[in-house]
Amino acid sequence: MRKQSAKYSPFIPVLTIYVLIFLIGKGVSGMWQVMAMLTFYCALGQAFNIFLGMTGYVDFGYVAFMGVGTYGMALTITHLAERGITGPAVIVLGMLLALLFPTLLSMAVGAVALRLRGAYFAIATIGVNEGFRYLIEGAKIWNGSEGIIFMSELNRVLGREAASSLSTFWSDVFLFVIATLAALVTLYFMRTRIGYALTALREDEDAAKVMGINVTKYKIMAFITSACFAGLVGAASWALKTPYVFPPEVFEIHYTIEAIIIVLLGGAGTLLGPVIGGLIYGLSKYYLSIFLPGFQLLIFAPIIIIIIVAFPEGIMGMVKEKAKGSSLARFIV
Amino acid sequence: MSLLRLENVTKRFGGLVAVDRVSLTINEGERVGIVGPNGSGKTTLFNLINGVYIPDEGRVIFNGQDITRLPPYKRAPLGVGRTFQIPRPFASATVRENVAVGAMFGTMGGQLSVDQCLDMADRYIKLMGLEAHSEKPAGSLTPVEKKLMEIARALAMKPRLLLMDEAMAGMHPKDIDKMVQLIKDVSDKENIAVVAMVEHIMRAVVGLVERVVVLHQGSKLVDSATKEALEDPKVVEVYLGHPPEE
Questions:
Q1: Has this prediction a pTM greater than 0.90?
Q2: Please, are residues A266 and A307 in contact by the beta-carbon 8 Å criterion?
Q3: CB proximity A158 to B under 8 Å
């Protein structure tokens, strides 16, 4: 029998990278915001990978889960501040609502859209994101298109000083935690029958059914888990960092595209892939915008095309293949 | 005792009656061949047994339970295992992972840990002689190896009924003989009923099965012991056309 702990050794490189990013951010002056941005992309990729990477379904409406997560936090803070409830517990409640909203939305979307396959699913999910945004704006839900600005409420809840350190430091620390948790959950899935079921249905859904796998159950499980992490990322990096939320910003399909690029670049369905993808994407976006402002997309697009063509399984997919049989293999999944 | 009973099962696709009022009983541990030319309804019959299709009429009884409307994923844990005519491996997963999936979601699924399933996978991989390929992605196997892997995957489900869809097509005659012996042994040892669908390879039919059901245009033409069935003039006619006039 293999030792239980050895099964989790692939977590070591992921954790090492996150700790390194954190230490660089903390230790090198002026690097905190850059490292926070990298963590945002890693967390986004890690969260999206649970669905896109493990099931092979492309969800173009993914950002909607970040959006409702952001709203969950914003609504909690504004409503509790109005009622005079203060303290860090408000943030914890906000996080819970940032989990609840994406859970409900993903259950509703999943019940309908996960009956569709391949391109049909992808198209349906674009509709979900845009539809949800216009619903909020048109029906004037949650303040409609005016959005919610809750700077003063946040100050009232935590006090001015704590609120400021929350937006400049602690919100990013939350992101580190979320990214790490998402990686742990991914690895847990991989090591249990959930991961085997997801791999099977990704490769051949009908054959998976015949082998006894309740594919709908596992797809929805991955969908909800992935959506929950998206909600947390939205709550931490958008609501807490910049205490306002506007529908056109949090339902911006651009973030979904970034998430897809990160996952495919790093290696869909691998554990380390979203981290590597997030680092490469984040770093090149940042430095291209400094050295060649305005040209970043023009340069970045062909780089992505080249990488995708050269390593169709993503960078970690290629590394995994190369590492097979070597002593490194047990750290890479 | 009867393990599987089809009662007047009919399946239509638009105006075409693919399976026409077929009744059939498979006993526990029995090995039966389903024979018939292309388009005779064999694959549809398989899909009705494992739940890919729901019949328009009739009932499917498995182990005393009416499973007529049960989805495939609920039939597998009851003990219905299957291989496909064109192999359907989970291509990016290794052979070992593929076979382990069988163990995880088959009849023993609930009781085994992932490690136990992987150990079970190793046993069946060895039985099929695929040890050397255990860590390869299943998609990289040759067609015959994929078929062997599918049999291992289906056996790891610990099924009570194994549906084999042209499992030996494309194999060398010598390998077929070996395969036949192997499946016979497993079926005897683990009391697995085998229903083998065969279009051409009569060698497999004669060696493996005790009884043959011949399908023709969706209905049952003959259901008897192997030797009689294959010598039946109706069967000869279906396969070879009318005997020449004297």
A1: yes
A2: no
A3: no
